[in-house]
Structure formats: C-alpha cells, structure tokens
Amino acid sequence: MKFILNIASPMRKLESYERFLFVGPHPDDIEIGAGSTAAKLVKLGKTVAFVVALDGRYGFENAPKGITPEALIEIRKKESLGSAAALGVEDVTFLGLSDGARYETKALHHALAKAIGDFGPDVVFAPDPSLISECHQDHLNVGEAVRQLAFFAPFADIMRQYEAKSAQVASIAYYYTAHPNTYVRTRGFIGVQLASIFDHHLSQFPKNSPAAQSLLRYLKLRSLFLGLRRGCLHAEGFRMLDRMRMHVVSEAGG
C-alpha cells in the first residue's frame, strides 16, 4: 500500500532541503550513523549543525584506564569538535545531560526543543526509536524526543511550553534504522566519515583496537550494501518522514 502514498504525496529528495540538524545521543553517534551524509551536505553548501545530547561520561570500555568521568567528558567533547570539523561542521551544541539515562526525560525534551527552535531546521536527523534491536535507553530516549518535537515544532503555543521557539521542521530522517526509505549517494565521502571517527574518537576506538577494526569493517560493508540498494557504489540509508507521513497515515509505518 505504500505505493499509493508515494503516488498521492511524493516525498522530497533529502538533499533538496537547506537546513539540517543532526542530533546524536553520544559524541560519536552522528559520525557513525550519518557522517558521510553530513559531509556531503556541507559540500553542497547546505547549513548543517550538530547537537550532542549526552556527555558520554560512561564510555569507559576503551578509554584510558583510571580516567574519571569528568575527565572523559572533556576528552569526548574535544573529540567531538575535532570530528565535526573533519566533516566540515563548525556549529556543535552540547546539551550536557548525563550519559546512561541518568536524566529526566522532561529535561531532555526541553533542551532539544530549545536547540531545534534556535536552529530552525528543515530536516532533523536522529536515531530511529522504533529499532526493535536497540537496547541502549539513551538512543531510545533521544530518538523518541526528536520524534515528538519534530512534529510539534511548528506549533508556537506548544513549543512555548518548552520555553522554545517554533520551527518549520519539514522532515525527520532516522539513522540507525532497519527500514530505510531514502538513500543518499556518498561516493567520495566515506573516507571523510571514517577519518572523522578513527582519527578523532580515540577514547572509544583506539588505533588498531578490535573495536576500531570491527566498526571500520562494518561501516565499509554497510556503505557498499546500501549503495547496491541505491544502484551506486556507496550510500547511507535513512527512514525519512515528511509532515504528511508523521501523523495518521499508516502506510508510512514500517
């Protein structure tokens, strides 16, 4: 039945929009989930900004031994800024909420609402909160908050309750999704994405570590596989919902 919806209301190409806000739960998620696309949009002359919701204080698995949460927060912030710059993004906002779901979801909603209202994006990127295999509560919370706020963003009276400005958000683009319906050709940008991760997020992916090697293989294979779906060499896939598809229309689900 989706073809009926696509005929009745074709969805705009993602790259046709002008302002893009990428929201990541942790300091490395945007780069892993959508780094090639972010780099391409910058190259196309679009306005791109990053919002990092949580401080990453519990990313200890591969971090230097004995490091304190406070020190790791500062390291990850510097890594995030360097990584964003490698993608061509200079506008990075840190909401500063604690990692590990140690925050009130109300505070998360308020902070994200303000970030969305201040930037005024056409498209907001976030993790897909409907991914049934996702076990990390931070990803689910951030994805769900963006889902609700992207829909409510144009309504000034509702956004005022979050002490935020309204914004004419036209679409959501979910990364980390099992059901992509939109593909961005990223040939020429996969290398930029990989460098943004493995040259900068060293507290999480030390050089030549098993974690780095596994993620590197995964990202290369994912890019090639999604490229095959799109009929090109490299691509990233997203589940995109425009305003027609955000509400009521069941054919947009799945």
UniProtKB/TrEMBL annotation:
Record's keyword annotation contains Nucleotide-binding: no
EC number: 3.5.1.-
The keyword Hydrolase is annotated on this UniProt entry: yes
UniProt entry keywords in alphabetical sequence: Hydrolase
Entry GO MF terms: hydrolase activity, acting on carbon-nitrogen (but not peptide) bonds, in linear amides
Residues spanning the signal sequence: none
SUPFAM superfamilies (alphabetical): LmbE-like (SSF102588)
InterPro entries: GlcNAc_PI_deacetylase-related (IPR003737), LmbE-like_dom_sf (IPR024078)
Name this polypeptide is given: N-acetyl-alpha-D-glucosaminyl L-malate deacetylase 1
Organism: bioreactor metagenome
Lineage, highest ranks first: unclassified sequences, metagenomes, ecological metagenomes
Gene: bshB1_6
